């Protein structure tokens, strides 16, 4: 997948795939993603509670259309909050960085001036990703807050995000075609 992982916006009817993705995280990964232990029921309530009319979830899928990386960007007054998850077998391929960059672009285009994420200090992978992407990190006890100040939206940022979404949709269409073709060949 490399550093050019293609992201696209999750659609409302794809909540079950997001739930499957998050349920695939083991207890330790859930702790690192949500900064506290979360049961299967808790994950289900979390997914059901995402307001896709206000927030956005970006995803990266594998060739079978399974979500291997997801980022929830919540729109708040004056800022945006981010949470990212990437399945263990898909880490180290630039997926987290692509999701983070896509979220920063959307937050900027929403007119938010700050994007941040909370994480546990022991979440070395997220701390590394945050630093690599230019986020500032403030540590307080066992938790850390990574944040970035965003420039105002402009024509370039709006166009770049539109192109990123179109590429993500094209990637999804291609994968959907191949999944359907494979299903036909197996019949």
What does this structure look like?
The chain is of the alpha+beta class and 187 residues long. It has a single domain (2-171), classed as Gcn5-related N-acetyltransferase (GNAT) (Aminopeptidase, 3-Layer(aba) Sandwich), CATH 3.40.630.30. It is 44% helix and 24% strand. It contains 6 helices and 7 strands; from the N terminus they run βαααβββαβαββα. The protein has helices at 15-23, 27-34, 40-49, 95-109, 124-132, 155-185; strands spanning 8-9, 56-61, 67-76, 79-86, 114-120, 136-140, 143-149. It has a 7-stranded mixed beta sheet, sandwiched between helices. Helix 4 packs across helix 6. It is globular and about 55 Å long. It starts with 7 loop residues before the first strand and ends with a helix. The model has no long low-confidence stretch (mean pLDDT 92).
